């Protein structure tokens, strides 16, 4: 079954408090989301595989560690997932970046893929699917479906804030995907907004309404 990890590190929780604040400016909001993404990446990547390599220091040859295999592919869900991606990518600059674009069908309310672009060797990489919010879970489930269809098997989902309903839906749909969140909120309201949440992450990131 999926592992669900809520990251209670003081720095993450401190910055998340400002992210929730409706008075935080667009510029500050974007910077904070970027910073929290970077902090979360430390824990999300804790169990990546390492290999021994020989390097020459200024003094002598020694054995050092490097990530083994094809490493990582970051997959933000457009558009809000972009807000966390730069922070994670700055920590793991060798990571490739794919993208998944989804929209919600107004009649069925299902997530529909309108764009997908991934590295050709996605099946060999550890995948981090990124979205600031996990509300109903529909978008996350569809995005993970998209990378699995392309052959990916080692997948993790990372977000800032989740509702219990979304966590359960994602666990049921993809029990092999671990979930990393900065906060597990109370519930969804009648319009499927996370309570207390932070509002619309995309609008707050990009200054739109």
TrEMBL record:
GO biological process, one term: uracil salvage
Reactions performed catalytically: UMP + diphosphate = 5-phospho-alpha-D-ribose 1-diphosphate + uracil
Phosphoribosyltransferase domain sequence ranges: 6-208
Domain of life: Bacteria
Annotated metabolic or biological route of this protein: Pyrimidine metabolism; UMP biosynthesis via salvage pathway; UMP from uracil: step 1/1
Binding site for uracil: 194, 199-201
Co-factor note (free text): Binds 1 Mg(2+) ion per subunit. The magnesium is bound as Mg-PRPP.
Keyword Manganese on entry: no
CDD domains: PRTases_typeI
Required co-factors: Mg(2+)
UniProt key word Transcription regulation: no
Listed transmembrane segments: none
Activity regulation summary: Allosterically activated by GTP.
Residues engaged in binding 5-phospho-alpha-D-ribose 1-diphosphate: 79, 104, 131-139, 200
EC number(s) per entry: 2.4.2.9
Entry GO CC: cytoplasm
Gene Ontology MF annotations: GTP binding; magnesium ion binding; uracil phosphoribosyltransferase activity
Keywords: Allosteric enzyme, Glycosyltransferase, GTP-binding, Magnesium, Nucleotide-binding, Transferase
EC class of the enzyme, as a word: transferase
InterPro entries: PRTase-like (IPR029057), PRTase_dom (IPR000836), Upp_B (IPR034332), UPRT (IPR005765), UPRTase/APRTase (IPR050054)
Function: Catalyzes the conversion of uracil and 5-phospho-alpha-D-ribose 1-diphosphate (PRPP) to UMP and diphosphate.
Annotated family: Belongs to the UPRTase family.
PANTHER family in UniProt: ADENINE PHOSPHORIBOSYLTRANSFERASE (PTHR32315), URACIL PHOSPHORIBOSYLTRANSFERASE, CHLOROPLASTIC (PTHR32315:SF4)
Official protein name in the record: Uracil phosphoribosyltransferase
Native organism: Phocicoccus pinnipedialis
């Amino acid at each position: 079954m999926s592992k669900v990890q809520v990251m209670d590190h003081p720095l993450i929780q401190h910055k998340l408090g400002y992210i929730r604040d409706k008075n935080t400016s667009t510029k500050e909001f974007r910077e904070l989301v970027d910073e929290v993404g970077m902090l979360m990446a430390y824990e999300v990547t804790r169990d990546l595989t390492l290999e021994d390599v020989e390097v020459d220091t200024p003094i002598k040859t020694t054995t050092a560690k490097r990530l083994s295999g094809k490493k990582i592919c970051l997959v933000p869900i457009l558009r809000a997932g972009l807000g966390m991606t730069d922070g994670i990518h700055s920590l793991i600059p060798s990571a490739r970046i794919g993208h998944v674009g989804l929209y919600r069908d107004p009649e069925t309310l299902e997530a529909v893929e309108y764009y997908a672009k991934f590295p050709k060797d996605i099946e060999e990489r550890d995948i981090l699917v990124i979205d600031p919010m996990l509300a109903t879970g529909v978008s996350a489930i569809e995005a993970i479906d998209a990378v699995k269809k392309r052959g990916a098997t080692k997948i993790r989902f990372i977000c800032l804030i989740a509702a219990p309903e979304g966590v359960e839906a994602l666990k049921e749909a993809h029990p092999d995907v671990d979930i990393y969140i900065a906060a597990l909120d109370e519930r969804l309201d009648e319009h499927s907004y996370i309570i207390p949440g932070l509002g619309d992450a995309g609008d707050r990131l990009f200054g739109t309404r």
